[in-house]
Design brief:
The protein has 211 residues and is α/β, with parallel strands linked by helices. The chain has nine helices and five strands, in the order ααααβαβαβαβαβα. Helix 1 packs antiparallel against helix 2, helix 4 crosses helix 5 and helix 5 packs across helix 9. It is globular. The two termini are 26 Å apart. The structure holds CO-5-methoxybenzimidazolylcobamide (B1M).
Amino acid sequence: MAKLDELKQSLIGGKAAQVKELVQSAVNEKMAVKEILNEGLIAGMAVVGKKFKNNEFYVPEVLIAARAMHAGMEVLQPLLAESGVEPIGKVAMGTVKGDLHDIGKNLVVMMLKGAGFEIDDLGIDVPPEKFVAAAKSGAKVVAMSALLTTTMPGMKDVVEAIEKAGLNGQIKTMIGGAPVTQSYADEIKADGYAPDASSAVDKAKELLGLS
Ligand code: B1M
């Protein structure tokens, strides 16, 4: 237990090398992968999310913690498939067509991964057809980011493309980004909106009926 606490604290502090070492040592000691993941890495990331929400942590600290989480996940990833730990759901996420901003998108992706979601990261400048293709290959939530007022209409295009593909009802859509608001989400009939990365985790869980 002390090891998992140490792991959690190292992750919160963004100490990637230490996180990797502690995860490896827990694996060597035959600790359950699920326990390392849930009580070490995900528990640490949840604290980071809360601190970010409360303005105790800012973007650099979150990115550094997320990098530490990735270091730990790298050790666990090959073991996860074998141990039967199911991701809690698959989210396809991208920055919409014409928009190259990815810092916020990457933060949301990392927080979702930290919360146990499987992520299909579609990258930047993503056209509606790519979001639709991802929805057809198992994503239950299509998540979009936009930072420009000029690219926000791209979100409406995706919502409409999903509807046109007959996936409405099966796939939830979710949007965010600095100029995006709840009223815009309502206007374009997106299923959800979140103002920041940690609220995005809550919203994705809510959309999948997990909260
Ligand atoms: Co650009 N840019 N930029 N830019 N840029 C902004 C967005 C701008 C507000 C700056 C300004 O003028 N004050 C302005 C947009 C104006 C507008 O449309 N209202 C702007 C502009 C105009 C441009 C260019 C057009 C500039 C030019 O070339 N003339 C150009 C456009 C390029 C393009 O996309 N086609 C451009 C280019 C760039 C860079 C490439 C230089 C760089 C991007 C680098 C990169 O992303 N790899 C850049 C940057 C860095 C910014 C600012 C300075 C910072 C954005 C950022 O990363 N914020 C930005 C000014 C600003 O916002 N203060 C600006 C930090 C990030 C963590 O926040 O992305 O908001 P954010 O994400 C948050 C939340 O919004 C939320 O969670 C995140 C964490 O809390 N969130 C979601 C995001 N997506 C979500 C999805 C969700 C839920 C929550 O659910 C799915």
